[in-house]
Amino acid sequence: MYSNKRILKISAPLLFSLLAQNILQVIDTAFLGRVGEVELGASALAGVLYIAIFTLGFGFSMGSQILIGRRNGEQNYRQIGEIVIQGILFLSMLAAVLIPLMSFASRHWLPLLFESEHIAEAVTEYLVWRIFGIFFAFANVMFRAFFMGIAQTKVLTWNAIVMALVNIVLDYALIFGNLGMPKMGIGGAALASVIAEIASMLFFVIYLMKNIDFKKYGFNIIRLRWPVMKRILDISVFMMIQNVVSIGTWMLFFLFIENYLGERPLAVANIVRSFYMILTIPANALSATTNTLVSNTIGAGRRDEVFSLVKRISRMSFAIIVVVALCVAIFPKAVIAIYTNDPSLINDTVIPLYVLLSALPFYSVGGALFSAVSGTGNTRTALVFELVTMIFYVSYMWLIIVHLRSSVAIAWTTEHLYWIFLLIMSSVYLRSGKWKNRQI
Predict the structure, then answer these.
(1) What's the rounded Cα separation, in Å, for the pair 164 and 194?
(2) Which of 141, 175, 285, 337 qualifies as a FRET site for 369, CA 20 to 30 Å off?
(3) Which of 85, 6, 58, 88 has the alpha carbon at shortest distance from 296?
């Protein structure tokens, strides 16, 4: 049903979209690396805290995307707009609760988590501004779910380019006080990201109004419908929990490094994290495509084609990620210099970066297989796999960072364990065929 060319055609715009979006993190990290090591390390912690909140909405949108893909495969188009509208209404209500809660927590609770007072102050300064972007980010993930679910992904590239350009200009202006703007440091990076989220949402709204048939997709009726919202939640709630658990342990990783290894290792870990986000973009694009195409294929009644489809996407993801990793491995210091001009920090980052590169092949295949499990609609099963993996992940993390006080390079071997576990469990489940009778 989907040739390799068709898979790449759907994935490519999403890849460029993710690349443009992650350029925001690269630019933030590169700019803040010129401000200081405290700001560089704090941006990692604050960024993960923000992402932990963001993943609630992202998990909801992924469940929505599965439903949209299934309805698209069934050619039941009118229900698609209904899913998007109910999703935006639900996430708007969730944002209205989370914004004041996180604003309070960032001032009074979060500073207690950090060993370094300077890190705590910088994290608070970032989150006080950044949390206001959550409303716009939640709306954006629902628009993204719509275009992914109907396999029309070109718009995502243009949206991300707009978002990246706005963020880059405002980072330059607000972090350093250029272009007549106030010098805000790490707070300026946060504010720039919020305004970029607003620009992204406006782009999606204008594009929808000009290019989408509202009647065909059921966008012409806007009202709160609890039965539809409940149906979305039945699928999404497990993905929301899964994402929060995943990001929560990711946050724990950086907290352990900050508390037990220090500010320099935290700065190194943040640079490696930024590489992680960029280098895995091709695999992430193909994983998101896997989710959509599996759901569409099942909706079209072609369940027997799912496993062969997933295998083809996994092979493509593996081949691409290996090439990307080898390119970085040849000139590690040159690419690390994008983030910092400190020679000692560059040298300290080389070995941890090599450790990360060795984990990427497992990521590429494991990510595609795990997304396929969710794409079948069995999000409860995907959550179980995540929780089982996390038990071993956190135990190993505690052993090597807290108990043994190992280096940052050894700490990054946690990613090998995580993706090997998910790869094995997802592969066994998909081969079993237990997902074939799942109705959503």
Answers:
(1) 12
(2) 141
(3) 6
Separation between Cα atoms, residue 386 and residue 183, nearest integer Å: 42
Contact 47, 128 (CB under 8 A): no
Q: Measure the CA–CA gap between 10 and 8, rounded to whole angstroms.
A: 5
Q: Tokens representing 162?
A: 């707009």
Inform me whether the pLDDT recorded for 26 exceeds 70. Answer: no
Q: What gap in Å lies between CA 150 and CA 135, rounded to an integer?
A: 24
Dihedral pair phi/psi, residue 107, rounded to 5°: -90, -35
Q: 302, exposed or middle or buried, with CB in 10 Å at 0-12, 13-18, 19+?
A: middle
Of residues 15, 39, 19, the one with CA closest to residue 271: 39
- The residue assigned the tokens 């993996």 is 389
Number of residues that this document lists for the chain: 440
Q: What is the mean pLDDT of residues 65-73?
A: 84
User: What is the separation of C-alpha 191 from the centre of its chain, rounded to a whole number of angstroms?
Assistant: 20
Here the tokens at position 332 are: 């590690």
> In 3-state terms, what secondary structure has residue 112?
helix
The DSSP output letter for 212 is: S
The Cα angle at residue 90 between residues 197 and 94, in degrees rounded to 5: 65
| Phi, psi for residue 271 in degrees, rounded to 5 | -65, -45
Q: What is the CA radius of gyration of the chain?
A: 21
Could you give the CA distance from residue 189 to residue 36 in angstroms, rounded to a whole number? 14
How far apart, in whole angstroms, are the C-alpha atoms of residue 316 and residue 319?
Answer: 5
Compute the distance between CA of residue 111 and CA of residue 320 in angstroms, rounded to an integer.
41
Residue in this structure with the two tokens 């990692």, named with its chain if needed: 44
CA 415 to chain CA centroid, Å, is 16
Query: Is the torsion defined by CA of 232, 234, 235, 239 positive or negative?
Result: positive
> For residue range 218-234, what is the model confidence (pLDDT) as tens digits?
887 777 788 888 888 88
Residue 391: which pLDDT band, with cuts at 50, 70 and 90?
A: very high
- For residue 179, give both structure tokens: 């272009």
List, as one string, the DSSP characters of 377-434. Answer: T-HHHHHHHHHHHHHHHHHHHIIIIIIS---HHHHTTHHHHHHHHHHHHHHHHHHHTT
- The first and second tokens of residue 186, run together, are 């790490």
What is the pLDDT of the chain when averaged over all its residues? Answer: 86
